[in-house]
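Why F-box protein? Reviewers of the renewal asked for a concrete example.
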Amino acid sequence: MVNEEVLKAVFPLLDGIDLASCMIVCKQWRDVAQDDYFWKCVCARRWPSICKRPSPPTVTYYKLYQTFYKRQNRRILLPPRLSFDDLEFFIDIWSEDKLIFSEVVPGPVLQNGMKIPPLGITDLFGYHLDGPEYKMTIPVEPRFTVTWSQTVSVSVLVGRKDSNRVACIINKSKFEYIDRTAHRAHAFEYLDFSPDYPFTSGIRAWISLRFLEDGNEGVLDVFGIEMDFCDATNSKEEVLWLLDMLDWK
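Here is what the prediction returned.
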């Protein structure tokens, strides 16, 4: 058996996970490792100020460590109250003051996305489609072109067929950043949430034009429109919960 004095010299140097592992080696190690002095050493490295008190704020420092060092498991969302079948999206795009795209897109169409990229697109677009973020993409048929020397802007409203209410996602935001490597031009706007969610803010809706270069300098051949909320969502269920929290009128 290991000399108890050796254990008492080593245990104060261990982190919490290693010290907890020592408690299951054998009865001798468990009895020594239960000394709250060792757990105070662990807590002092993690929360130094709390150990300045003459006694722990909980029953023991071991209990303090157990309470606040537990890993938070990802919460499983309840089924959303909305579905894409309940929704339709109103997308309007202008070049200067000229309306160049105006469509009502059913929720299921936006949800299904664009599975097959057009000919001539790089492998990067396919990689982008297979990424972990949840994106909603529709093909543009017929395609349209935009000249980047002009101001191009977009508005997106979403309607609920179950209640005939409407919320704003993007309101005349400009496509101010173009990423030719990824064949994307971006616009965004911060979402307006219902007063029922006063502490929810800072989440952006992103909308992108997916394009090919048409051979003319500064002219983009738009083949798709993409929307995401990747500041906050990575799944269909998270998107639906986010939309449900909007300020519906």
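The two ends are 73 Å apart (CA to CA). This is the kind of structural detail the renewal will allow us to pursue systematically.
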